[in-house]
Each structure stands twice: as structure tokens, then as C-alpha cells.
Amino acid sequence: MNQFERPTRRFFLTLMGAGSxxxxxxxxxxxxxxDGRPNFVFILADDVxxxxxxxxxxxxxxxxxxxxxARDGLRFENAYMVTSSCSPSRCSMITGxxxxxxxxxxxxxxxxxxQVTFPQLLRDAGYxxxxxxxxxxxxxxxxxxxxxxxxxxxxxxxxxEQLRDRPKDKPFFCWFASTDAHRDWQFxxxxxxxxxxxxxxxxxxxxxxxxxxxxxxxxxxxSRLDHYVGAVCAELERQEVLDNTYLVFCADNGRPFPxxxxxxxxxxxxxxxxxxAPGRVRxxxxxxxxSSIDLAPTFLELARVTIxxxxxxxxxxxxLQNPAATSRDMLFAEHxxxxxxxxxxxxxxGDWAYIRNAWPERQNLCIESTAxxxxxxxxxxxxxxxDLQPHQRDIFxxxxxxxxxxxxxxxxxxMSNLAGDPAHAETLNRLRRLLDQWTEETGDTVQEHPTGDRxxxxxxxxxxxxxxxxxxxxxxATRVNHSGPVRIxxxxxxx
Length: 495
What we know:
alpha/beta; disordered N terminus; Arylsulfatase, C-terminal domain; 8-stranded mixed β-sheet; Alkaline Phosphatase, subunit A; 4-stranded antiparallel β-sheet; globular
């Protein structure tokens, strides 16, 4: 099969089982393609790190459907979320805006109703729009014709149903949001079970029996999501609309383990991203930088809908036909309140990542890094015994470094902070200036009255907890549309 050849229906029917879905074929003259506008299926994973799929090099987790669409689609090697926190990340994707700019920068904050969302614009342009599964963005009824809470433990069981029940006289956009692989683990027969010996524990965690057992649930839920990716592809084949459909996949943030979720390391914000569109997308690998806020303008451009000035991301449509192209030279991310008080910012340019921590005197925690879950529990117990290696003590280090600098080519797990190395002073200063520019142009601020910790490290609730000042509020950042720097020596509005 060459890179532009349509994959055979036999592949997906074989993988899913010919009898697993009711055989049902739409006429090839499906009216969704009459005006040439493509359909879209956007599949969003919950808490899945970029390197936890087979197509990204993980040999322990079975993901045959992901592996196939990655092989026949475009797989991104350097796609990043703008935050590693569930609801702010989703709100950024749907608006194309940074968290401090869309007005919902902290966990569980609802997206303000005056923010423009790209599914709303698609709907206004005549698309049938569906959200099925996890919302976590607030009231988005203006954006979707159909909103379903989803079915099954991963919220994926009605995805095929939504595809079948759609009106056949409109192009469609489906936002399919799984809860796989979010805690707590829920097992069923849609995916294989894994044994502790199947697990590869990252070096920054404690490799013990509780951690290994904890990872088996995570592996299972990723494989379950893979099962439903196959079901969606098979249904699109049955309806003979796959050749006019873009299937796009990514996750909202990294795996729900210590030093991953909420963090600005690659383990937290780097995401698997695949675009599968037979005959429309080159079956290759793209190494250029892509941000999650770039999804909104990309969907809109492909649908031939005007991109509003509120969108801060940049379309990466050029990469779909030329994977060697670039749409940005740098990208940015932020870590705000997520149960625990936080304010970190990151810039990535080339192989370098720079992180700035506004409150280095605080432990860098999330729920998953406390003793509430097995991997965290085992990490804390090992710390109490004095059994941890220096690179495993990240969440216990106080004070933390106010600045961090990493060479991702030499140190992909970001365990060697080079910010204090005089040999890299020029790189450090360059990235400092970029982050300063982004902070100024997007209206970001460090709060004077931040939201404090909701609970302590043992899960005890703070009775005086309340939501306080958001980052950017002092500068009315929700009214700022500036993208910040995107290209080297770029001026706003110029390429």
C-alpha cells in the first residue's frame, strides 16, 4: 500500500470482528461529501502520555488500531498540550487559546460563555456537531447539536451509535472524549489484562510491586481506548465516508502518576497526536512543533471556515501534506492550580525546554503524587525509608529550582537541570527572553492572591479553601488575543 492509497475495509473488519458491529453500508454517494467539505472525528484520551502507545515505541501495551492509523496516517513526534490539567487543557483545545486567556485556567473551572469555540463555528457553518463522553468544560450547548455523557467504563460505547444516527445531509464533526485512562481503574472485557511483569516503570518512580500493579490498570485502559478507535474506523469504512474524513487523536495531558500529570516536563505535556485521513494526509512522521491550541485553527481551515481573531494557535495544515514543514518555531505551556497551588511556565524551542517556577518554596504536587494512589503511596514510603535515588525525589525537593533548563536531545526524561551551567548561559538567556515576551504579549501574571491548596498530602480537605485570583486576571487576559511569539524574530501579525 502506498502512502496515499485508501486502506482496505478488510483490515478494520478483521480486527474488530465481522459480527461485532451490525453490518451496515451507506451508499458511496453519502451527501456529506457533496460540497467537498470534510468530516472530522476527534478522539481525545484522558491522561495518556505520548510514549504509551505501540506506535510511539511502547512494546508493553497492545494498541493495534492506534498502530495502524499511525502507520497509514501522520504521526507527530513533537505535539504538546498548553497545560497538563484536564479541564484547562480541554478548554484550550476547543477555543485555541492559552488557559490564562480563555478564563478557565484552573481545574474544574467552567469556560466562560463569551469564549468562542471552534465546534460552534463549525455548527454555524452547517456541520452536525457531537460531543460524546467527558465534557469537563462547562456549558457548551451552543457548540454541539448532540451532547452525550457516553456509555461504558471509558465512555466510548456510544461512539459508533453517534456515527450511525447522524443526519446524512450534513458534514459532521464528532468530539469523542474517552475517560480512559483516568483513575480509578475500571476493568472489562474490551481490552487485555496485564501482569506486573509486563510493566516498564519510568526511572523517576519507585519500581515496587504496588507501582507495577498500579500501571497494569493504566495499560488496560489504554488498550480499551484502542479497541474503540478500531470500532470507529470500522464504522467509517462501513459508511464509506472514511475517504472524506479526518480522524484526529491526542490526549489532554500525561499519565496520572507522579511527575507526569500537571507537570511541564514531556511526561506531562507532550502528547501522542495522529492525523489519519486516507488520500489526504501523508503516511509519515512530522517532527515539527505543534501545540494543542493549533487544533482549532487547523479544523477550521480544513472546513473552510474563517478563523476568528480570538484564536491564538496557528494552523498546521501545511504539515499534513508536507511533514517536513513547520508551523511554529516555539511553543509555550503553563501549570496553574490543580488541587495544589502552582504557577509554572515553559517554553520549548528546538531541543531546549526552559521552565520557570514562581513559587519554588512549594512542593510540586498533584493528587496522583500523594499517597492516595498506589504509585504515590509507594514513593512516599520509599522516601520515608531513605530508599529513593536523587532523580526520584522530585516531589519531595524543597526549595525547588526557580529555573530549569533541559537539553531534550541528550536528556529526554529531563532529569539533568542545566540552568546553572555557564556553558548554556546563552541558551538560558534566549529562552528567558522568549518567555518574558510571551508573558507580556499574552497578558499573563503571577497572582498576588492565588488559589491555595484544597487539601494536604494526606487528602485532608482544607475547610477554608476557596478559589481566588486567576493568572492574567490583573491584566484582563481574557480580552487579549495576541498569540505571543510563534516564529523566530516574528512580529505580531507577520510571518
